[in-house]
């Protein structure tokens, strides 16, 4: 210790209760990190470059509330402290105490009075009980975080748990759905089933709840190919939220990057959560549904210099976190959470990669969505497209073969990187979201941008030799308004969050259609329903990958709350008691997905060229004004909201299927009218039959109940605020 504060005396090596027989200790191995059961005993290994000593603490009792033994790890190899305990079995609860300098002004925050979770723990039992003893410094001391707290935190800490990895996977195999055939469904484990009437009460809100036949039926009928689970890593629930009667519902506050969150376990938190999660993955795979995890490696739940000491901060603060170089007492905060993990440190980078590989190899997940991914890609300060984070993933034989999705921004300078991630990565296309919202809201000047978004955003992705499926198209996500709220509120209404409505985004590009919030006006309700259909139709008819937010297909509302991260209640949970309009929207969405799946022209793997393809009588894509003439010049930059159309040549796809056969589709025509007034569209003249079948018109609440067609050259009345889709046989 550098500052001279007294350290509470720890128990002697191998000390336990009176009469306790000490646990045999062998040297063990420095790899793998964590607690590893090999069938005969357990190897413990903990990285800490700057520690002076490490104690392994074993716990027993019904809740693991009794420290039965404290073992000094005498073996130290390549900055890893390790030991092998032949008498230890799965189910053992444990933690660490790490000795070293307490010098916050130098970036060191060791305090052996604080029990610490294993960063590599495969399961965590219990939850934090907030107490001043959890902090490395003394709360209320004039020296604030420079002071030293001698209280033992063990009584308030969860325990790390040794797990048995054995599981009967049977014939489980990843679906490996090609990117261009993928439909992502973003969901919260608890919120999806918390109110589901068909799911037994004891299973609601759990991993097991998502395996219920009624849940699977909904996903399959909808056409989902991949669920994207909001964070399921063990997280820390913020004290300030608990004090307000709230919680960290979303879970973007990870402290256990290997441990499935025990909050969602129906069977227990002594390792049962691991088996239950594996069962979820196996069940979804049997139905052909992939599992993508929303992962938070950009920061941890320990916060800034005033946060608690529960794991990384007390193990090796300067290795795990990005500290301000000239004042390492403080943390770089590119995440808005108080800290940023130091992906420039090889051991921290190893932690991230080991965690990712574990979830693929041991838990069988199919991909990851990286929260605030720009923070991981930063060099010393700037986002680096060629950084170590990308290099190590791209060369990895496991991780390079799964789905990788970036949230391509963080909160730091230059953090907005939509379109700039390298090959192998898909991106949440925030520009798509904003453009589509503005277009249907009726903003001027959106036609050109809308054309890019409908065709897979080539302005963002083609230059890097990427593909349309690099764009994850979405209109809503967990962060922001739901679809129903997007068309019902002009302003956020986050009062329930306890921050006087200051939290959450102010610029939502939303439009309430004439009344703020609930209304009984039939004209406004009809317009809102049509706008939701417009958004859904645009999503499913755009090139790129569709992502739906769970519940949007049934018009889920959060009552205008666009930042429901702390609402573990009816605000966030899906209401499955559907009224007529919700049932209609569900049927409409299912029909849209079927159209998308049936037409390869809507799921292209390559960008349009805007010209005739060899053997085709038409361009692969053609743009039309309402008068039937091709668009040019000023048509792309109208001074007001404007209607337009595009034709996708079904015989000009210039792709082959997996057996090398040419991909051919019907020729499709999409007409869009964001204005108030009906627009008479002249339908393009086609050779051959020259008739267009109406597949969809969002003016109608339900899909067409009978076949309707119109002749090329005729006028089609496209009502205000609506979209229509037509098809005609191609000539291939």
Please tell me about this protein's structure.
With 732 residues, this protein is α/β, with parallel strands linked by helices. Among the domains are: 15-161, Immunoglobulins (Immunoglobulin-like), CATH 2.60.40; 609-728, Immunoglobulin-like, CATH 2.60.40.1180. Helices cover 19% and strands 19% of the residues. Strands 13-14-17-18-19-20-21-22 form an 8-stranded parallel beta barrel. A 6-stranded antiparallel beta sheet has the order 1-5-4-8-12-11, with no helix packed on it. The longest helix has 20 residues, at 522-541. It starts with 14 loop residues before the first strand and ends with a strand. The model is unreliable at 1-13 and 15-19 (pLDDT under 50).
CATH topology of the domain at 15-161: Immunoglobulin-like
Q: What is the total tally of β strands? A: 30
Distance between the termini: 78 Å
Structural class: alpha/beta
Provide key terms for this protein.
14 helices, disordered N terminus, 732 residues, Immunoglobulin-like, 19% helix, single chain, six-stranded antiparallel sheet, eight-stranded parallel barrel, alpha/beta
Can you give me a brief rundown of this structure?
This protein is of the alpha/beta class and 732 residues long.
Helices and strands in order:
Blueprint: E1 15-16, E2 34-37, E3 42-47, E4 53-60, E5 66-72, E6 75-77, E7 80-85, E8 93-99, E9 102-103, E10 108-109, E11 123-125, E12 159-161, E13 183-187, H1 189-193, H2 213-222, E14 226-229, E15 233-235, H3 239-243, E16 254-260, H4 272-286, E17 290-295, H5 312-320, H6 346-361, E18 367-370, H7 373-376, H8 388-395, E19 403-406, E20 425-428, H9 430-441, H10 447-454, H11 458-461, E21 471-473, H12 483-486, H13 522-541, E22 545-549, H14 580-598, E23 621-624, E24 644-648, E25 667-673, E26 679-682, E27 691-697, E28 709-711, E29 715-718, E30 722-728
Parallel strand pairs: 13-14, 13-22, 14-17, 17-18, 18-19, 19-20, 20-21, 21-22
Antiparallel strand pairs: 1-5, 2-3, 3-7, 4-5, 4-8, 6-7, 8-12, 9-10, 11-12, 15-16, 23-24, 24-25, 25-30, 26-29, 27-28, 27-30
Helix pairs in contact: 9-10, 13-14
